[in-house]
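OP here, attaching both records as promised.
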Amino acid sequence: MPICKRDGFDLNQKEDKNVTFHDNDQVFCCYLTKRIFRDYDNYFRHVMVINSTVWQCEATGKDSLTFEEARKSERAARKKMEQFKQSLRAPVLLVVEHARQSAVNTLILLVAKFLRKRHFIGEEVTVMGKKNTTYKVVGINMSQTIPEPSNGIYEDTDALVYRLRDLKGDATTEIDVPFNQLRRTRLEFNMDNLGMFIKSNVTRVDGLLRPKPDAYKQYVTDPGVNFSTIFIGKMPRYSPSKIKKPDAKKQSTLNKYIVTDEQTAAKSKAKAKADAKSLAEEMERVRLEKQVRLAQMEREKAEKKAQLIERVNTECDSLLSKTDDLERSDQKLLPRYNQIVTLLPERFLGDAFMMREFMHTYAGLLSGIEVFRQNISFYEMTRALTAREVAGPLSDILLVLLGTVFDLQKEEEEECTVTYLDRISQHSEPYRSMSQAAQCHQYSKRHFSFKVNELPLDALTLSEVLRLHLLGSGAVVNEKAERWRIMYRNGYSSKEDPGLELRLQHAHILRALKNQPVYQLKFSDIMHLIRCLMSQILTYSGTINLIEERLEQTAKAKQELRTLISNENKRIAAVEVNKKKLNQTHQQAIGGVEPAKREAMVDKLNKSIAELHAQSEHQHRKHEQQMLQLHSQLFNFLVYLGMDRCYRKYYVLESMPGIFVEHSTDILDTCLEQPPLNKSQSEIRHQAQLPKNRKDLRIYLLKLYGDDDKKSRRSNKQSLENKENQEHRLNGTVEPMEVDTDPPTAPTQFELMMCSGDKRNCIVHDPKNGQRQRWSYIYKPEEIDDLIRALNPNGLRESELLQELSVMRSLIEQHVKTCPTEVLQLESEPMRKKFLTTMHAETNRKYGEANFGVPQGTDLNDVMRLHLVDRLLQFETDIYTGDLGRLKVKDMQKWRNDLLSGQYDPQGKVQWGPGGKLEDEVANGSTDNESHEDHAEGADEEKDGALVGKYAKKPYRDPGHFLVASPDEEEPSADSEDEDEEEAGPSESDIPSEVHNMASALLQVEQAIGKRFLKEPYGMKKWDPKQEALKLACESRLHQWEVSLMASTSFAQVFLHLNVLHDCIQWRRSTNKSLCKVCRRGSDPDKMLLCDECNGGTHMFCMKPKLRSVPQGNWYCKECTKDLGLKNAQNEKDKNQAAAKRKRKFIVEVEEDDEPEEDEEEEDDNDDDEEEEDQEEEEEEEETADDKSEASSRTSVKLNGRATRGLRTSLRGKRLTSKEIDEEVNGDVQSSEAGDEASLEDNEEEEEAEEEKVCQTCFYDGSEIRCVRCSLYYHLECVHLKRPPRSEFVCKKCKNTETQRPRRRHSHMNGDNDDDGGDQDEPQAKRSRSSRNSMRLSLDKSARQSNGNNNNNSSTNNNNHRRSGRRTNESNLPLNSAALYDLLEQIMKHKAAWPFLRPVLTSEVPDYHQIIKTPMDLAKIKSKLNMGAYQLNEEVLSDIQLVFKNCDMYNVEGNEIYDAGCQLERFVMGCCKEMQLPFKPSDMNEGEAAAC
């Protein structure tokens, strides 16, 4: 741009330039040129010249600018030139001097290429990865692997190694860095500032561009710089440009301008005018032709562009669009997986994995899952599906699933009343089966008086309860329940019940369950049952709510994930914007700053950028943690990953680490008629290198095809794969592309897992292909990498699988790294043996007696029969010894022996049901052919209170009689169906004889039970013989139970009847389980009176007033005398008659009571109040006693003892003298007299000989000494003795008793005046109630000796005898249970109680039991207090003291546990002091003993 003050521009020549202006002078100012004028005309002319002139930028050469634009352009160019790096200016001028070029643009490109390939000594650079550190080049060396060039010119500058020195670090520390790791700042070197610098510092001399002398002197000559001082080697040689010399023509003359005459001038003028006209016409013609040609070219160009765009779009669609995997031709080889080989058949693996994952996923919903420790192990699953066991893991699985279904049904019934209806809307299936399913529920109510989901459920009754449940599945319900199901079970209806589908599709399973246990079914049928139960669980509202909750959590996590990714992208963009702003601000501020301050500003910029990056990294780490958390939430609900091209399914199971691949036999489609041929693997690899984004791919293809059209002008279309190898342009040069050679042979369709078109030999569509791996797995990271690389991102199925694997890869790898390969690859026999050994070791502790000790391989029906015999004998013994009833047979011992030997003899006619139907009548056939389909009618009668009349006498029909033929079995003939309809009841030929014998034996036991000992529904809630209607209704229910019992066709049905009956017995009224109605304890049985009506017990010392002797004759409790109007015997005649019938007597030590008579009078006054409280407590205690009776009666015992009426009389609640026993025995049956006496004596001797020597201090066996007074055992260390005493040993309790109460032993009843007399009577006094246990023990022993392995599950409970024996002298001492409970609760809640809450494990402290011989913990103390093991407060406090003594003995002072023990013991001392309990502290707090 011309300078405004240059000559020719200044139009105001008349105005003096040196004129001065004064204040207040009126002037005119031009702000563009910064000039002022006095005269307006001068100012106007100046402004008009500036605005009307076209200006040019002097630095860049841009023209057609205004004055202001040109000035701004020069200023920006000058600023860019100043930013050019100082250390590069000398090299630029040297290159300009040696290049000798004539074109400015060529010179700029040449210099730019020279600078990009080199760094110079003294230049400041940065190193890749260390952006915040600036280094200075101090030396340049050549790599040792490349020889030095012969001409001294280093062309291959990429191999140079630069020696750098940190500007801010130690000056002596230098590093060597290769060229490819060095970087320049973009602001210091780019094409713009390089061009500005060259244009400003070069001049044209003789047609060539040379450096300006002053610039060359400033940057090269004065500093003494040459090429050797800034780089190694010599300056590269450049070809100089050709100089265009001016044409050497002679100067033209002026002859043509000289006019000779006017005529010649006129001719010349006319000729010139004609030539001008023709020239104008020619120019117009050329212009038109050019216009037409340009239009044609524009049309051709538009057509070519449209074709190019269409071609690019087609190519993009083919490369990026997703199609079916089997129709693609760019598939890669999939990796080979590890085949799963286990003991399970391959066809069951999928169902087994599904079952295990189901139980793991819904562990919080399943009832009784605790038996598997929250999930079934692989060993338990294998044993369940390979072993035939009654009480094995398979039974637990079915019990958990069926129990969960029942619990969900009960929850539904609580929400809405469910009534099952037998109405039928249509006569076709499944409506007919739905109507008949209601009969099963009515069958259960009729014959068991319970709903199906209320029947007792265990491993033995499972088969029958499961059959009844499936037969009743899908029943029609009332309208209200149906609407409730539609609302809360997602539109569920009875027609959709999985049990109904199983009944229709696999009816043979239910037919088989009628005669055999579920454990004998085919494993395929068992899996059908498991799948059915799991499907039923999934239909209930509780499971649906859980699934919906998980889906909501998954959707929420996905939404949060999308939001998190969006926020992270915004944050990254904001960081880049802030960084750009910092650079712009820095560039603006550094423009006119001195070099000294510039470095400080650069450091400040770098520091700001570093802080920005640090903050960004912190936020990025936080983002990664949130991403990992959300991915973890999504991964918790991830099971199914997707499918690959050949329909193999990929699973990630929480219960089993690993990625499992299933090649299912379900064919999803048919073979392709013309399968596509796959491309070569090299083409596929090249295609994989293309951009994945459509926009980037389109730009890439447009450039590729556009350059190709410009170069070759070929019209034929070429595919992208062929074009890739032609050329790849990089910075204007052509570089060859590496081409991978294809393998010698292309992979086949089988190797690619693609369709072959031949269904007989297709890996995809041929389910019988031998090369298919039905189940396989992968777990290694490299295997996952191979799978991800092999999946096709454009396949419909594999793209989804690839997406899941890519997103969850880190979590999947973390989950599958613990894959148990040792259980999934049992290919060799040693591995199988090792697995079997481990499986038995892992499961034998829980399932070692799965078949109740019967040898392996025994038929399961025999196993159940033997166990049923044990249960029946135990059941009969419990009833007999508990005075609940007696078998109505001539010889009980023969009856038992026959039952044990399998030759059952009822010893008489067996009759059952309404009217007392005999067995002979059933064998001959019933004459009642009346149909009993109308079950609802009977149900209404049951509501009325009595099962009598038509309903009670209807013939029995099994609920499974209506089963139709399933598609997977042969349809039965029409004859058999007719026979079923005409049959009034099951004949004996249809019932297995062994099952019938067991049912008959159970029937005899049931008929032996006293009706007053039965609970609802088979007995009254409170026995009252006067209520005839209620009594008749109970008898009718029991008759229906008898009918279904005698119609049993499997042992499971007999077990079900046994359990139902067992649960309906009032076991609390058994003399074996009698508890005192006052103190609620069963201790001191020798001092307890039993009611002759209800068998209820009361301690003599608990009565008010206390009884000192056993009353003669019948004795009745207060409830019986009050409710039933019974009276105790009052005269000798009544006493003698009662004694002849039933003699009971207790031997009691009469003691002088230290309590004053006033206390007794006060107690008598409170009798009425306490009686009311006792009645309330008794109702609560009934439930507890019943639960205990159920638990004890579950154990199976096989008995082979003898029992007669004489022995039974001795088992009554009262103690008999020896004389009375002799009289009673002599009055009984003569044939069994001698045997009974010998058996009783032998049993007592065996019991005393085998009595466990239990220490009364630590309650462990193995005692060494015995007290001569109380006959209790002790360890030497427990009584602080080193060796057995030479004299008789008397325990501390006996000594204390003798010291405190010296008159306790005086007895006027039996004449015992000394201790010896009391000791002689002691063994006799112990035999009142415990003699029943003695009889059971002897029966157990004889049974074990005679039957060997048949008694597999016997258990004898002799705890009552042992406890009563050692607590005889402690019955009158107080036990404040409530206070001790509070004390224990406070102790266990203390913050220092954590080491003493549970027993010390040997695995944690190996030598603990070697030092501590008597371990004790708070949990054990609380358990003993709950079980009634304590009689005295001192016993509880003694065990608490033992805890702290053990702590003091094992731990060292200063230990953490020692300090906790000290703190807790001080707390206990304070509590005992407040409660006035005698507590003796250990040595840890010996100094504070006085305070306690």
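Record two, same layout:
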Amino acid sequence: MVEVHGSAESPARSNSFSHDEDVDEDHGGDYSTRMEELFDGDEEEHEVEDDEEEEFIYDGVDAEQITGTNYREQLQDVLGPDDTSDIFEEDEAEHSLLQEDLSEQSGNANGSEQPHAEIVPDSAGLSLSPPVQLTMPTLSQQLPFTPVQFIGELPQPFLHPNVSRLRSFIPTSPPVNAGNISLPVDLTAATGFASPLSRASDISRTSTPGAHQKGALNNYLKAEREVFRWTVLQNSTNQLYAQRPSKAALLLGASNLGSPMVLAANGLICVGTDAGRIFVFDFKQTLLCICGNDTSASTVGPISAIALSHDHTYVASGHVSGYIQLFDLKTPQAPARVVPPPSIQAVMSGQQEGHLAGSRIVNVTFVAGRHTAIVSGDENGLSFYHILGKVLFVEAPDTIRILGNYPEESVAEPDGSHVSTSALNGPGVRSFRRRKPRNTVLAMATLPLGIAAHPTDAYQIVALLTTTKLVMVGLKPSPKTWLKRARDDGTESTSLDWRRGTLAWFPSIKGAQGPKETVAHSAHPTLAYSWGKTVRLMRVSETTTKQSVSNARSGKTREVDMGTLVFEDSGKWSMEDAVLALQWLNASQLSVFTSTTLSVHDTRTSKVVEHVHFDASILVSPSLGSTTNGSVTYSESLNDIAHSIRAYKGKIFLLGREGLQVGTLLTWADKILSLVEQGDFLSAIELTRSYYTGDAPGNRNGLPDEEEERKAVLGQKLHELMVASACYAFSEDRMNDATHSSPDGRGVDRTSVFEGLVTTCARACITLDNYDFLFEDLFQHFEDAGIPRIYLEQLEAFVLEGAIHFVPPRITQRLVALHDDNGQPDLAERVIWHIAPSCLDINQAIRLCRTYQLWDALIYVYTRALQDYVSPIVELIALIRKTLSSPGNISSLDGIGSHSVAYKIFPYLINVLSGQTYPSGEPLPSDEAERAMKDVFHFIFNGTSAVWPAQGGRLILTSQDNGMEPTYPYARLLLRFDAESFLHSMDIAFEDLFLNESSDISRLSIVRILWDIASHEDLPLSAVTFINIFIARNVPKYPQYIQIHIEPSLLHDLLILLATPPDSETREDRQLAAEYLLSAYTPRDSSHILKLFEDAGFYRILQNRYRHERQWTQLLSSYLLDPSLQTPDVLPYVDEVLTLSRTGSRNSLPEDMKDALSGALGGLLAIDTRSTAALVDKFAPNLHEAALSSMDPTDDRGRFDYLLHLLGPQSPDGENIASSRPPDYPHVSEPLCRLFVKLQCRYLPSEVIDSLDRMRSSLDWPAVEQVCEENHAYGAVLWAMNQRGQPREALAKAEAFGKQFTQHIVRAVMASSPDEADVGKLVSFLREIGQRGASICLEHSSTSATTEVPLEDIWFQLLSSQLHSVQVISNLHLADGADGHRLKINALSTLRGLVQDTFASLVTISSTRAVSFPRLFKRLVDPGLYAASTSGTPYTEFRTILTGMLESYRSDGDMLFISQRLLDRDVFDTVEEFTKEKMRGWSARRGVCSYCHQPLVQYDGSSNTNNTEIRIIVSRTAIYHASCLP
């Protein structure tokens, strides 16, 4: 084995900026010069050992930079060393890719420099100018950064608690912790800071960093980030893509070098052409040699695969003809070895192995570090191991087939477009068919040698990927298949996706980067392979076991280590499109190419690191020429680009149709320096900050994975970038350069530039947690420039957001004074209580707050800066005193009434007595919180007026006109002002643990003080009520602190006081307080207390008592009297009480409960009629009549709803309380049933017959018929008569009804002013009668015998009656324009339709012998033949009716015919499709047995341990093992 590993020391690089304060004066506003000096270092020249590999020199744009400092060196100097974890140690072989002297590349006649091109994946040939010194940078790109939401949670006003803790509905939200009115904040969106530096910028001024940040982030994410830096290798491209010689030149002997087809780039750049030549370049783009000659090229044909040996001395090429050539680069004119396709006779006889003539070689690769060991694969799925060595200086090649089978059939010779078949196989020899392969080798690669030896190197592993399996073959010590893995990703979306596959090895490494737990795994070789859209990773390692081996000569045994390869899956993910190529960039990053995208994946996390657009159509496809003979389709060949993509030491080489280009994945340092070179220094700061926080998008190549190490690298860079940016922004030259002028001469507003500088540096300093630069250097720059206002406005946003708490006093003074001078005291107030108190100017803050009545800020200054928690109460008590003396007449200076301002005392008390600051609500330090609560409690509940401050203060009075002060003056004043709000605050304060531990103030003492205050008559009744509520609710909450120390008599009196006030507004609040108190105290005189509760309306308490004592009558009354239950919710409670009372009385309702229920029926019916009906029917059905009688006499609709629930159809589940009723309705009397029928005829006539059918056993039929007739339910009358067995009488009744309504219609139509509604109603009656008569006739025609009911007579009776009505109305003579004429036509149309429907019904039973249609027809036309003479029906009228019927039948027949034709066609198409599918056959799903569900065939290469033959049985619908056949 030959191992060649390049090595070189990495150059030393500086990790910090070189900064000199004097540089500012020397260079002024020349930002590029400033950056150059900032980035320059004193490091030594990089010395790279000249190893076997050529130096890879390149600057990215084929030119030297004007600055004289190479881009890569700048990058190293400024941002530190590159990614040292690159396992290929990139620095050993290259600094950059430098093209040769530009003077050799004249691009035009005048000898000027040819413009260079930057190659991007979607468009080759884009122009790119080299970096130049920028006197004014052009900044056009926004940066990603984390948005800073600067709008703080401003304090909200403490509103009067309409629903407080003392109310019956306790609020669930936490208490309000702030006390100022919210002021609007400017939310105007701001733009990025970098853009205004552009010459063309006209962005207006803005001052909101949060909105600026969010907008810049969105713009950056939408923009196309530069991920790869692409460049055309111009020298190589010029030689590869030079003008081809003409045909005449070829005839005169010119060489045809061909067009590029395939690429190899691992140490050298090798490009194979379609003329069989190989161009070999070094990384200086120097053409080293061209392998091959015209003679060999004409024989072997175009190159379809190429490989470069590990030591870069040999090149192997595979050709479309099946030839394989090996070139020694020292003698490239002729191949050192040639592997020709074997003859058919040799293959068929087994004497020789190899690729058949005309089989396109799709892959060729060297084995490990060997020169003459090659593995190849062709389009027919065959793969061979070629050993091209010599024995005694004589070539002794050996070829071993490691994959695939030869075709079984032989046909005519292939075309000889590239190679003469007769020359290879001899005359008359037949070759195998050239056809589209079914199982080609999609990809193949041998495991390359890594920079560190690994046990797997000894096996010389080769990975082969076909459309159906992945095969791992070890060539040493003898060829062996170690793994066969079947494809298991299911059916791809297209057949092309099924035939897409690629793979790439990454060898073993010396050390691994990343987390410690992944280091051990990272040292093993890893295979990345893909089928269709799915990418998988497989790690290969070796395990050893001890085995005993005996010596045949000595007979002794010894133990030896036997190695076994282990294959471990280590990752899997899917792409949106089929994967076309895979290439490793480094040990943890894999580049994945599809037809439209190029993405870089982190193999440790299987996540996408970078993602850019990529156009695969610009690359060369080596199989495009094979589309002419049909072996490869054009669509399949178009994306066959795997041979045009190679990666080497982090560089990606692309062989395009128009040029050879190279791309580099930009690291974090590349991106930052790119922004610096553009002049976008603020974006560079933001990007550096995002890398510092770990929020930057894209890869982090070159940065340590450990957070502490990463921050150590980036922290200093971020600080020095801020320093350099500030120096440049305020340099004297830049302040006067052209960026401040516009074409119209008016100048450009650059305020946004300096605003962005403050916001960017502020975010960076917050991230670094170091504010020295922000508050010292940067502020001094703004101060010296005379624009501190911009600095202060931008800084304020961070203060209000809470991101910055500590601001130096000199800046705080300026910020507060700024708003004071602008007449915006509200903004100054916000600033004051957002800044740490130690940073405030106390005198300035207090003066401003007193002047403008800034109460929140004043309280903040008192409490946080002066540690005085009583003075705010003193100030607010003075306001309360004024408010009570002159309500509504005093206003504060800011326009807010003193009444509203005085309410700030309550949120202040809540915060302080809960150990929180005001107004932010942040926790106070424990010792300070204890001191604050102690001072406040002592002052509020002081028995007499106090002097404050204690030393040199004044007496704080509460009485009007300085009169006599009462006891507990301050608590009493707050109770008079708003007792509910004050006690709400005390209720929250009681929850603090301070009152558990304090020795001189306790909950009990406060309760006694409140009780003492309430005993005097100077408080309003509402205040006393809330005091009682407060005490009653807190006694059971703190029994160990309050209850055990209070006499029971006091609690009894408290319970009486809660029930005494006749205030309905607080009834629920007092009842809830009484419930609290009763949970801890049982009164001694319960009867008296219950009487008080009844008078007070405490029904909830009474209900609990009555339920406990089983007083059902009183419980029912309490539910009915409870005002909170005057809704349908009361009915379930009533049902529950009635159920409980019936349970204790042998399942019968007691009489007293019946009386109570009877008396409550009126109220219950008013709540819900139907539910009440169910309730009565369940418990007291004899009260139905009483319930109906209790209803309003005019409320017939209510009675109907009541009865409908009892007698109607079953209601949906859950609608009624009552359960399902028996069908005979035993609880409902016959009069009530008759009443229900009467009401239903009026309100729901369509359901009358259904109701009669349900109640047939409970009805008096003659009475019901009379009721129905009186209420115009004529169909119900006929139905009832028929149900009583009187069909002839029913039809006679129908005939009488018909004649009656016909006469009514005649009179209505002939009237002078006919009523259309009246006529329509009469016609509807006739239609109802006719339809019911027809149903009667149909019923008897299908069930009755002829002797029972004469069917022909009843049909004749019905039809003659209907025809009589038609004749009478038809004989009316009315003028065409008369109103009655239109009504007549409408009535005739309806009645004729009725006759047609009757005839249609008759036709359905015309097959019976009892009805003769011809005889019936004659009777209808001439009734006198069989019956007494009557007015006959004119034949014309009869013909009109029959003609209409026939037309209707004809239309129905046409529709049936059309439907039949459509159905026949659908059936034909379905049968045809089914036949095609049946002829196509079927395949077994998932390849498993339908019985045992085990695989039919083992695909993993395992042997059949039982040595039994496996037989498979295929049936029509399933596939089985022979042993599993059912």
